[in-house]
Structure formats: C-alpha cells, structure tokens
Amino acid sequence: MTYDLLIGQRGYSSWSLRGWLPFDAFDIPCRVHRTELYGPDFAAEVTAFAGGRTVPAAKAPDGSRLTDSLAIAWHLADQFPDRGLLPPAGPDRAMAQNLISEMHTGFGALRQACPMNLLTGWAGFQPSDSVHADLQRIDSLWEAALARSGGPFLFGAYTLADVFYAPVAARIGGYALPVGSVARAYVEAHLAHPPMRRWRAMAIAENRVLDVYDQPLERMPYPAPTPLPAKAVDEGPSINGTCPYSGKPATHFLELDGRIWGFCNAFCRDKTVADPEAWPKFMAMVAGASG
C-alpha cells in the first residue's frame, strides 16, 4: 500500500512538510515526487498530478486524490487507525482536532512575516503586534496541551497535531521568536525529532535556494542539533559495497571518522552528509562495521 506524494522544495514549503511528515513519522510507505515552487511548470505539474492547485498533493493506492495537507491527514488517520496518528477518542482527540484546524486556518500574520526557511536562521527579527498576538495564542495552546500530557509532544506521543505545528516550531526556532519556556522546549523537541531532521537534511542536499525567501536581516546558523562531522569525498573504496538505502552499487562517497562509506547517488550521500544521525539505516551500518 504505497502512496504517491507531490511536494515543493523542502527548505521552504511548510505545507509540503505537513504533507510528508505523517508518512515518515507513522511508517506509511510513499513515493515522493517533486515540483518547483515558482517554477514555470508548477501549476501544470500540480494539476496533472492530482487535479489540485497547491502542494502537497497525494494519490492513495485506491485511486483517491488528496489535494490539501488537512485532507491527507484525515485520510491517513482513517486508513491507519492503529498507528496513533490521533489520540484515542475523547477529550484529547477533540483537543487535537481543534489544534489542527486552528493551525490550518489561522496565524496568518506569523506565516506572512516569517516564511519557513530551513537553510538559515535570521537574527534581529522584530515581531509586529499581529505576530505577537499569533505567538501568544500559539503559546497558550501549546501550554494547555503540554500541561495535560506532560510532553514532550502535545499529547505525549507524536500525533498529527505535532505534524501541523512542525512548521510553526521551525519558524520560532529559525527567527528566534519570543515564546515561553514550555513552548521553547517543545520547539527544541521538534527540531531534534528524527523525521524533522531527515526532512531538513534532504532540504540541504537538494540545495534549491529561493531568493524570494531572503530577509533583510543578519543570517545566523539554523538552531538544529549539531550533526556528526561527515564530508563528501570524490573516491572510494568504501567499507560498504552497496547503498544502505537502495541496495544499489556504491558510486558516491562520504568520510566519517576517517572511514569511507558509499551510496548509489549524490542525493543519498549528501542527505547523509547533512545529518548522519538522522538516518537509521546508515547509523546501523556504521554500528555493524564497528562492532
């Protein structure tokens, strides 16, 4: 049961992030297809894929077409009721559904002023009154949920509610926005969450820079966990003969701790260079060779 998912550039497309996270976080197979935000073929490619006008869009194995991140979320929760996409029925589920819906329709001031950019942080941003109001509302929503659950995520375990607030956490971290200590810890939990680390590693490997997202601010390092010091190298031989992800012959290489590892293409290598610990198959291979 494999889905097809269409996304934009990972570094910037917050809605694409919301569409992809449920598949990765809840182990639902999907094939990822990419289109270019602001590219000349964007509208045609999106329409041809699933009949919609925006990303993300998904095609289900039964032929259903889903042209919105909220539709994707509700569909997956219905199709995989035992994966924990939503809290159990009752007050927590109602609270989660409300949080998701408010995120989907609200916080326009924050979205407009602070577009998601996972490739850099921005120093010196001064929130307007309307952005402050959005942040205060977000802070209160998060605090109420986390007080009930005890964290680290809104309902203890990771759910679709966290999926929908992942781009908000990315914005708060990337612009160093003012929130309370509880919200700050929640942001840090997002930025350290393995699916989020994988998405950002792939964004770095894509190397698709969109100047339209630049800000008149000083750049600062994005506040993600510090990756292991891997680097791309031109030649092997590698310890492994096949790519840890595809099983295909190793043709591209990286060095980590003085040892060479191989991958089947530049993207597999570069996403691993960006954050080796985000990739369980790679780390398992390293651990196996060390043991």
From TrEMBL:
UniProt keyword Metal-binding present: no
Any Pfam family hit: GST_N_2
Matches recorded under SUPFAM superfamilies: GST C-terminal domain-like (SSF47616), Thioredoxin-like (SSF52833)
CDD domains given in the database record: GST_C_3 (cd03194)
The keyword Plastid is assigned to this record: no
Keywords: Transferase
Span of domain GST N-terminal: 12-79
Domain of life (superkingdom): Bacteria
Molecular function GO labels: transferase activity
Matching InterPro entries: Glutathione-S-Trfase_C_sf, Glutathione_S-Trfase_N, Thioredoxin-like_sf
Name by which UniProt lists this protein: Glutathione S-transferase
Origin species: Lutimaribacter saemankumensis
